[in-house]
Amino acid sequence: MDTDDTGNRLRFQLELEFVQCLANPNYLNFLAQRGYFKDKAFVNYLKYLLYWKEPEYAKYLKYPQCLHMLELLQYEHFRKELVNAQCAKFIDEQQILHWQHYSRKRMRLQQALAEQQQQNNTSVK
């Protein structure tokens, strides 16, 4: 039983690490250029990994954008486009823009909340 638990834990860790690597467009480009996306067994493995979208597994992900990439990798056209370094660069740039926008928006929301709390504290006195 301990061997099974250790094996399951190791498999979980390996699959978690691999799924999160899919968030990196340069890694996807690397896989595409080496022909992994032409291998039917590898494509089937990507399909199998869709279980990571389930909440009980997704909660362990540090880079949730990997799930979006995993979803896109189900499409042959997307897999073929990843051979092009410009495609990977475009995805990388879009991710950076998203993070910048998200960070700014979150900071504004936090500032507004802090100001509201400060006004509430002032009006209570």
From TrEMBL:
Q: Which domain of life is it from?
A: Eukaryota
Family matches, as InterPro entries:
Med31_sf (IPR038089), Mediator_Med31 (IPR008831)
Instruction: Return one Gene Ontology term, BP aspect.
Output: regulation of DNA-templated transcription
**What cellular-component terms does GO give this entry?**
mediator complex
* Molecular function terms, GO-annotated: transcription coregulator activity
The principal localisation class reads nucleus
- Compartment list: Nucleus
**So which residues are the signal peptide here?**
none
What UniProt keywords apply to this chain's record, in alphabetical order?
Activator, Nucleus, Transcription, Transcription regulation
Q: Write out the similarity annotation.
A: Belongs to the Mediator complex subunit 31 family.
Stated role: Component of the Mediator complex, a coactivator involved in the regulated transcription of nearly all RNA polymerase II-dependent genes. Mediator functions as a bridge to convey information from gene-specific regulatory proteins to the basal RNA polymerase II transcription machinery. Mediator is recruited to promoters by direct interactions with regulatory proteins and serves as a scaffold for the assembly of a functional preinitiation complex with RNA polymerase II and the general transcription factors.
Oligomer status and interactors: Component of the Mediator complex.
Query: What is the name listed in the Swiss-Prot or TrEMBL entry for this protein?
Result: Mediator of RNA polymerase II transcription subunit 31
Q: Which organism is it from?
A: Melopsittacus undulatus (Budgerigar)
